[in-house]
Amino acid sequence: MKILITAGPTREYLDDVRYLSNASSGRMGYALAQASLDAGHQVVLVTGPVDLKPPTGCDVRHVITTEQMRDASIEAFPECDGVIAAAAVCDYKPRVRTPGKMTKIGEPISIELIETDDVLAQLGGSREGHWVVGFALEAENARENALQKLRAKNCDIVVLNNPTAIGSDNNDVQILDDSGETLSHLTGSKTGIAQDLIAWIAEHLQRS
Fold this sequence. Notes:
Distance between the termini: 10 Å
Radius of gyration: 17 Å
Oligomer: single chain
Number of domains: 1
């Protein structure tokens, strides 16, 4: 298989030096890329800014903003068999980016935020024989929110995890399908979970 994997955070700039982002380390996405290569698959890795070295053998495409991740993913998707969207994209960006650096004025300021493009939804909406795996990091109403994400973004399965995964070497995830059934429960190191998830995808989602 040839697999598109998105990893890491994205950034949305308030001005030329300040940005909105999140604490994603990219470890899960990079572990999935390595596990895919180890299993003999080809990998296109679209990665936000992280302090990790991409696995040797990937077709790596570095991005910063959500728009850049969307564009790089849409470009790569047609040549791939499926996508694992492990990136933690920034959901909001300022309506207006201030040139240069905003100066402190000693008073509160208001910044209007708008939603960024939904990378996974666009990939799920353009699939043509592809399989689509989403990740859902949820703190409250976890299963319900994950299932809403799966259906809204036209995923085959969603991998549900929680905020304790951020910055950790370990994870605890459930693979859910559209019915809400837990197809598999994986726990342990992100490396081990990545290997198990790639094996599960190859067995259950790979098209003949």
